Amino acid sequence: MSTGSVYILGVGLTKFNKPSVPCSYTDLALEAGTKALLDAGITYDGVEQGFAGYCYGDSTCGQRAFYQFGMTQIPIVNVNNNCSTGSTALWLARNAVLSGECDVTMAIGFEEMAPGSLRSVWGDRVNPLGRATDMMLETRGVDGTAPGAAQYFGNAATEYGERFGSTEDHLTEIAYTNHLHSAKNPYAQFRAVHSREAIRAAPAIHAGMTKLHCCPTSNGAGAAVLVSEAWLDRHPELANQAVPMLSQAMATDSPRLFSRSAIELAGADMTRRAATMAFRRARIAPEDVGVVELHDCFSANELVMIDALGLCEPGSAHRLVEAGDITFGGRYVINPSGGLISKGHPLGATGLAQCAELVWQLRGWASNRQVPDLHYGLQHNVGLGGCVVVGIYGKPYFSGNIDQDGRDRVGYNPAVECRGITRHDFERVRSRSLFSEYILADAKL
């Protein structure tokens, strides 16, 4: 395997919207991918492998999405790994570069979701979460009125409180903080700031969590272009925006999943393993991190995963929350994007949206939500069933006096302004030689 580094050269994101807002996954992917290629300063002809992440859609949706940019006959891999799908696509794209197989890869994650809580679409076969749900039934019971995911994570926070002393107030503070952060993110599905009292008074969901403690279902897409160190050496004019992926680790469940612990049932052990590997490979410690994009599908999950990631002493995540160490002015800024709770959670896009936020932060582009004095960022994306990806990003290695960056090519600062794409934008990045206009017949350009 190559010893060279892998860099994020370009990122792109759509606004996350409610499922009731009309859209097509093809248009979402087209927008996010066009923005990522513009940011990267390359055309699709330079992409050697593509990885598409989505959970709700037929096989080969990835080809349908990528073909819009060109039909260059590159390998395209379709990825489905529950809520960690986007980061799994990113993990595969990074590994393809790291292996020396190619120099440039692209990951796109998208989702066109149905309204309401998550549910299986395959009622005629074994549910992959069936045994985990059986364990939840045996240990905590199953609430027939609450969404299953809310029960998994809400029960984990209940156990955390029983063992270490956290309360519902800590969950409310987490939800309050994420809603506060999202007000400055133009891509967020929800940008309203809610008081702590309003969060407590919202409709109850499960285990002390209300509707405002929970992420919504969403439509949206994200994309990233990755390059090798050798490729970047040949294009030094782009070094000022290339964010190094210092490490990435994927883990799945251990037998502790069935240890009759709600915390373990929510994926804590695989998060511990992935975080330990990621920090070791990056050769940094948790206290070196300044910004974190953490998978807060529920406020309960943020509480438990702060601990599992090693961001606090074991059993003291709620103390970190109490001290204000999850927001600006504290030890970490967790989810400056607003997180899943208020930014939204289109499953296939979430990991790539986290990636985009960290890239913008580490480039210093995030303006009114910029975390100061950054050196490292941490990404955490988890899916029940189960899989977790933890990544560590570093600051770009600036090279010489470079007058232009991705903001000039896109035409604005995408970290603080969300715009759609034009036909002119698309024409600048599509394949020059292997492209069919036919596939764009329904595209909104």
From TrEMBL:
<dbReference type="GO" id="GO:0006869">
    <property type="term" value="P:lipid transport"/>
</dbReference>
<dbReference type="InterPro" id="IPR020613">
    <property type="entry name" value="Thiolase_CS"/>
</dbReference>
<dbReference type="InterPro" id="IPR016039">
    <property type="entry name" value="Thiolase-like"/>
</dbReference>
<dbReference type="Pfam" id="PF00108">
    <property type="entry name" value="Thiolase_N"/>
</dbReference>
<dbReference type="InterPro" id="IPR055140">
    <property type="entry name" value="Thiolase_C_2"/>
</dbReference>
<feature type="domain" description="Thiolase N-terminal">
    <location>
        <begin position="22"/>
        <end position="192"/>
    </location>
</feature>
<keyword id="KW-0576">Peroxisome</keyword>
<keyword id="KW-0446">Lipid-binding</keyword>
<dbReference type="GO" id="GO:0008289">
    <property type="term" value="F:lipid binding"/>
</dbReference>
<dbReference type="InterPro" id="IPR020616">
    <property type="entry name" value="Thiolase_N"/>
</dbReference>
<dbReference type="Pfam" id="PF22691">
    <property type="entry name" value="Thiolase_C_1"/>
</dbReference>
<dbReference type="InterPro" id="IPR002155">
    <property type="entry name" value="Thiolase"/>
</dbReference>
<protein>
    <recommendedName>
        <fullName>propanoyl-CoA C-acyltransferase</fullName>
        <ecNumber>2.3.1.176</ecNumber>
    </recommendedName>
</protein>
<dbReference type="InterPro" id="IPR020615">
    <property type="entry name" value="Thiolase_acyl_enz_int_AS"/>
</dbReference>
<keyword id="KW-0808">Transferase</keyword>
<keyword id="KW-0813">Transport</keyword>
<dbReference type="GO" id="GO:0016747">
    <property type="term" value="F:acyltransferase activity, transferring groups other than amino-acyl groups"/>
</dbReference>
<dbReference type="GO" id="GO:0005777">
    <property type="term" value="C:peroxisome"/>
</dbReference>
<keyword id="KW-0445">Lipid transport</keyword>
<feature type="domain" description="Thiolase C-terminal">
    <location>
        <begin position="268"/>
        <end position="383"/>
    </location>
</feature>
